[in-house]
Every structure is written in structure tokens, then in C-alpha cells.
Design goal:
Blueprint: H1 18-70, E1 84-88, E2 94-97, E3 118-123, E4 133-142, E5 145-154, H2 162-203, H3 221-271, H4 278-306, E6 314-317, H5 318-327, E7 334-339, E8 344-347, H6 349-366, E9 370-377, E10 381-388, H7 409-414, H8 422-432, E11 436-440, E12 447-453
Parallel strand pairs: 7-9
Antiparallel strand pairs: 1-2, 1-5, 3-4, 4-5, 6-8, 9-10, 10-12, 11-12
The protein binds adenosine-5'-diphosphate (ADP) and magnesium ion.
């Protein structure tokens, strides 16, 4: 894995891996939510505890006030760690107290004021006690003077008890961790599907273009769509690549045959100069060179059409163009013109002339006695038709003949001169014009129809 380039290697850790980032983001959001909810919950329980504390103070005070008013006050009052009580006589002596405060000086020194005669303070700690406590001081008027009642209870923190705090913190931590783990699992599942696609793609090269990336699970629709799109693209690439490979092989093969023939003739002539009919040999070599030239010229034309070199469309009188091209040279068979006058089309006249010649040359070669060329126009299209009275083309071959170097057996036997590129070029020209070139049914012979949109 070491020498695999970075862009092919597995995604790294934080901060760039989607897995880590998503998990962290969800973790942070979950933590914030739980902290917020936890604080609210703790405030609620803290408030409840504070209310309970207040109730305990009130309860204790309500129980003691009558005792103090009526006397006598018992020396030992009820109370424990969480409830401290002191009763002071008008001279400030501790007359009665809960067990912890027996014999201690007053726990608080702030005066009970106002009406009702009551004051409250938090002391940390009150004299003789430990920790922070809420101390309530009450004035009790008696005939012998003002008595004081001090009641102290431990101050409960805002969060209530430590147990609740620990429980809430622990639960938040656990759930946050669970959310992070769950997010990682979910994201990891998607990312694993994407990794599988990437790993497969990284390994595909020209030698195994038939490989396809794995499809994701049905509930990962976006990733499935990605995989399907990638595979469709691979399909098209494979098709284009195979076509190119076939084309190169066919081109090499078609160039090699005449080249070998020429070479053999030349070698023979050099080996046996006296036995050679030089004019005849030269003519044969020239024929071979002609054929090579024809193939190379066609290949070049196709390469230009493939490169989608811009057309130079101009308003062309198609009727006149066809008329002139057909008169250019005498034909082996009769050529019948069926031309509607003044059919005008926006096209590249040189290219359309080339297309027409390719069709008419073929028709002439295959016709028994007659070739009919017609030009017509309707609202939507301009139609050029080349019909012969030869053997025609079987329905299953009607697309095949347009592929490069395709030559049907009958044609190969009849005439070795063709390159098999004429119809491929003609169709490219038609498509470059936004039109179509097809073979249609006819009573007899082949019927090629070019349609150019108006
Ligand atoms: N008018 C026609 N009648 C019968 N077959 C035809 C006709 N035109 C073309 N074909 C077939 O289509 C093949 C491809 O034609 P084309 O691409 O022009 O190549 P080429 O003419 O060099 O053979 C021909 O070899 C022939 O088999
Ligand atoms: Mg041809």
C-alpha cells in the first residue's frame, strides 16, 4: 500500500476523513444537547431539594415556636447532622440545642429583624458546625424578653445531590459515546461502499475495461446511483475503446495487404530483372500505391470527421449540386435523375458532394443496369435518395455496412478496390449535418436515404 499514490489510498484520520469528521460533529452536537438537558434536569432536582430543605426548616420552626413561647425549653432538642437547632435566652445563652450544639456558643450572630421577625443567611460554616448551611433565625417575644431560635440545615447545591449529578453526567457521557459510535458505524457503512467503488476504479485499466464497480445496498440510493453512473461510463468507454482497437487492427490489416503485394512485386523484379515485364510491373505497383493512397485518404477524412472539425455550411442549391456531380463523369450504368427543382439546404457542399459520390460509386458497382438519384424537400427535411437495381442489402446487414472497413462478402469478391470506409464516411458527414443516412426498404436493389433537417 506504501507506493500507492495518496489519491488512491484509503482516507486518512481526522481532520479529512468523512468518517471521523461526521462522528466528531455528531458527538459534539449530542454532547451539547445532553449538557443542556442535564443542566436543566439538575436545576430542577436542585430546586426540589431546596424546597424540601425549606419545608424541613418550616416544619422544625412550627414545632418549636409554641414550645419556646410556653416554656420550659428542653435542653436537648431533636435534630441530627442535617438539622441543627439552638434556642437562646434574652441574655444570649444557649438554653436548648440539638445534640451537636450542646454547650456551644450561638451558631449565628446576625440579628433577626423585620416582621415577621425572621432573618436568613448562608454561613460557611456556622459556629460549631461543618460545611455551608442555611441558617434561619427567629425572634420569639416572651414576657422575660426576646428569645432567639436558630435553625440550620445543610445548603443543598444547585444540582441537588452529588449522586444525581454523577448519574446525569455518567448517562450523558454514555449516550454521547453511543451516538458517536452509532454515527461512525452508519457513516462507515456508506464510506465502505464508496471505498469499494474507488478501489475497483483504481485498478481498472485498458487491459481489463470489462470490470465494473460494485453496486451499493438498496438503502444507499445515492451511492448506488453513483455506482450505476460509473458503470454506465465504463460501458461507454469500453465500447469506444473496443471500437478504436478494432478500427486500428482493421486499418493496419487493410494497409498491410497492398503493401505486401507491392513489396513482393518489387522484390521479384529486383531478383529477376531480365524476366520482368517492367511496364506491367510498374502499373501493378502503381495500382497498389493507388489503393494505399485511397485508404490513407479515407482514414484521414474519417479522422477529421471524428475530430468534429467545424463544417462550413452555406445555403446550397442541392438540386444543382447533385445535377453537376452526376454529370462529372460517365458511369457504367444509366443514371436517372429525379430532381425536384430548387431544393435548398444549409450544408457543406464539398462534404455533401463527397457523400453523394460515395453512394453513387457503390450503387454503380452493385447495380444491374440503372441507378436512380432523387432530391426532394418537405416541410421538415430535405431528402436525397440513391437507389440501384442490384442485389440489395439484407436487412441484418443494413447497419453493419456503415461500420468502418465493413465489406460484405459479395462486394469483396466483386471488387477488391473498395476501402470499406465509404459508407462510414457518408454517415459521419450526414450526422455532422445533424441529419441521418439509412438504408430503406425497396422493391429491388439498395435504397440509401439521406435526410437533412431544414
Ligand atoms: N448499393 C449497394 N448495394 C449492395 N451492397 C452495397 C451497396 N453499397 C454498399 N454496399 C455494401 O456495403 C459495403 C460497405 O460499403 P462502403 O463503405 O462504401 O465500402 P466499399 O464500397 O469500399 O466496399 C460494401 O462493401 C458492400 O458490401
Ligand atoms: Mg464504397
Amino acid at each position: 500500500m506504501d507506493n500507492v499514490p495518496r489519491r488512491y489510498s484509503r482516507a486518512g484520520p481526522f481532520p479529512n476523513s468523512i468518517r471521523s469528521r461526521r462522528s466528531l460533529q455528531f458527538c459534539v452536537v449530542a454532547a451539547l444537547v445532553f449538557i443542556g438537558a442535564g443542566v436543566l434536569f439538575l436545576m430542577f432536582t436542585g430546586n426540589k431539594d431546596a424546597q424540601a430543605t425549606r419545608a424541613r426548616i418550616t416544619h422544625a420552626v412550627e414545632g418549636l415556636l409554641p414550645v419556646i413561647r410556653e416554656g420550659p425549653v428542653p435542653a436537648v432538642l431533636p435534630g441530627g447532622d442535617d438539622l441543627a437547632i439552638q434556642v437562646l435566652d434574652p441574655r444570649g445563652r444557649t438554653v436548648g440545642a440539638s445534640p451537636r450544639l450542646l454547650g456551644h456558643p450561638p451558631m449565628a450572630a446576625f440579628p433577626a429583624t423585620g416582621h415577621p421577625v425572621h432573618a436568613e443567611q448562608v454561613l460557611c460554616p456556622p459556629a460549631g458546625l461543618r460545611g455551608c448551611m442555611i441558617v434561619d433565625s427567629y425572634k420569639v417575644d416572651r414576657p422575660d424578653g426576646v428569645w432567639l431560635l436558630h435553625v440550620a440545615v445543610p445548603q443543598s447545591p444547585w444540582y441537588g445531590s452529588t449522586t444525581v449529578l454523577a448519574f446525569v453526567a455518567g448517562a450523558s457521557l454514555l449516550v454521547t459515546a453511543a451516538v458517536a459510535a452509532g454515527t461512525f458505524r452508519l457513516v462507515n457503512r456508506d464510506m465502505t461502499a464508496i471505498d469499494a467503488i474507488r478501489e475497483e476504479l483504481a485498478e481498472i485499466n485498458a487491459a481489463d475495461l470489462d470490470r465494473r464497480v460494485p453496486l451499493a445496498a438498496p438503502n444507499q440510493e445515492e451511492i448506488s446511483l453513483l455506482a450505476v453512473t460509473v458503470n454506465d461510463t465504463l460501458d461507454r468507454l469500453e465500447q469506444a475503446y473496443n471500437q478504436l482497437r478494432r478500427f486500428t487492427a482493421d486499418a493496419s490489416h487493410d494497409l498491410r495487404s497492398p503493401l505486401t503485394a507491392v513489396r513482393t512485386r518489387l522484390e521479384d523484379a529486383l531478383a529477376y530483372p531480365q524476366d520482368t515485364d517492367w511496364p506491367e510491373m510498374t502499373a501493378a505497383v502503381l495500382a497498389g500505391v493507388d489503393r494505399l493512397q485511397a485508404i490513407v485518404t479515407d482514414l484521414l477524412t474519417l479522422a477529421r470527421l471524428d475530430a468534429r472539425a467545424p463544417l462550413t455550411p452555406e445555403r446550397t442549391d442541392l438540386t444543382r449540386l447533385v445535377d453537376t456531380e452526376l454529370d462529372r463523369r460517365p458511369r457504367r450504368v444509366a443514371v436517372v435523375k429525379d430532381l425536384q427543382p430548387d431544393v435548398v439546404a444549409d450544408c457543406d457542399p464539398l462534404r455533401i458532394a463527397r457523400l453523394l459520390i460515395n453512394l453513387v460509386d457503390n450503387a454503380e458497382r452493385h447495380a444491374a443496369s440503372r441507378v436512380t438519384v432523387s432530391v426532394r424537400a418537405d416541410e421538415s427535411a430535405v431528402t436525397l435518395e440513391v437507389l440501384d437495381d442490384g442485389a440489395g442489402i439484407a436487412a441484418e446487414d443494413r447497419e453493419v455496412v456503415f461500420t468502418r472497413f465493413a465489406r460484405l462478402d459479395a462486394a469483396r469478391n466483386r471488387d477488391a478496390g473498395g476501402t470499406g470506409l465509404g459508407l462510414a464516411i457518408a454517415r459521419e458527414i450526414a450526422e455532422a449535418h445533424g441529419g441521418t443516412l439509412t438504408i430503406r426498404d425497396s422493391d429491388r436493389g439498395a435504397r440509401f436515404v439521406l435526410r437533412l433537417p431544414r
